[in-house]
Design a protein that fits this description.
about 270 residues; alpha+beta; C8orf32 fold; 4-stranded antiparallel beta sheet; globular
Length: about 270
């Protein structure tokens, strides 16, 4: 058995609590159905912000800044959508339209054909027939396989690092939410499940620099785009605890020079 398959077998039984402890205060949001925000940013991506489950209710420009009022709903309290997610049949040969299919692409940061990714996926998802089961297994694997890295986080915040590529992350087993997203996304794209890289911040009453976050969003046939989070022990919480500001094929595609300028809000208010 290769070292990666051995690690895989171990990770299926061992769960870390680092991220869960750090973000436990946000789990209370999972049972709310709607939250409203007002925030001021320098460079908004309207297409990404005004996208389900988020909706811009008002936007105005003042000098070089934009003030945006936003409503976000909890899609996981929508029984019909949740049922469609869990009932979706997995099809390795499924074809998608061009806009969705582009989120199956491999990039230097997210190589879906990486040898280690293929080996993990072929073992972890063998004989699975439900798309959501594959997603859940991938979330649990990445959550338990990787551990947080403050040094990488500082480099990304400073614009020095554009996130770490999948091959390196698989070997070092360390990263930020961005690297967790890279590995999860590579697994999904290898399995022909379109997945995009989202960047934004946590749904919190008071903004702080640690609130910047990245997470994956999977396309499930019949249900549409669904946010998930491999830094969490449960798939339910993050879909309502995150505010999307950008999305792309990978971090580079999100067109972020620095998080401070392009993502972080100048002001942030929960209403």
């Amino acid at each position: 058995m290769s070292k990666y398959l051995f690690m895989l077998s171990m990770c299926m039984f061992i769960a870390q609590s680092v991220f869960a402890q750090s973000y436990s205060k946000y789990f209370r949001l999972a049972n709310q159905d709607t939250v409203n925000f007002t925030f001021t940013v320098k460079k908004p991506d309207i297409k990404a912000i005004d996208c389900y489950p988020q909706r811009i209710t008002q936007i105005s420009k003042n000098a070089d800044n934009y003030e945006i009022s936003l409503t976000t709903i909890n899609p996981y309290l929508d029984g019909s959508k949740l049922a469609k997610m869990k009932e979706a049949k997995y099809d390795k040969s499924r074809e998608y339209d061009r806009e969705i299919a582009r989120f199956l692409q491999s990039t230097p940061l997210i190589d879906a054909q990486n040898e280690h990714i293929r080996q993990i996926a072929d073992t972890l998802f063998k004989d699975e027939t439900q798309t959501f089961i594959i997603i859940e297994k991938a979330l649990k694997f990445v959550y338990s396989y990787l551990s947080p890295s403050d040094s990488i986080a500082k480099q990304i915040d400073a614009g020095i690092c554009r996130t770490v590529d999948v091959n390196t992350v698989i070997q070092t087993r360390k990263g930020t939410c961005s690297e967790y997203t890279n590995v999860f996304t590579a697994l999904m794209r290898y399995m022909n499940i379109p997945t995009r890289f989202a960047v934004g911040y946590w749904n919190v009453p008071e903004w702080n620099s640690e609130s910047t976050h990245a997470w994956p969003e999977c396309y499930i046939e019949g249900a549409g785009w669904c946010s998930v989070d491999p830094t969490m022990p449960s798939y339910i919480c993050p879909h309502f605890a995150e505010i999307r500001m950008r999305y792309g094929i990978d971090y580079e595609d999100c067109d972020i020079k620095t998080l401070n300028y392009d993502i972080e809000p100048i002001e942030f208010t929960k209403r």
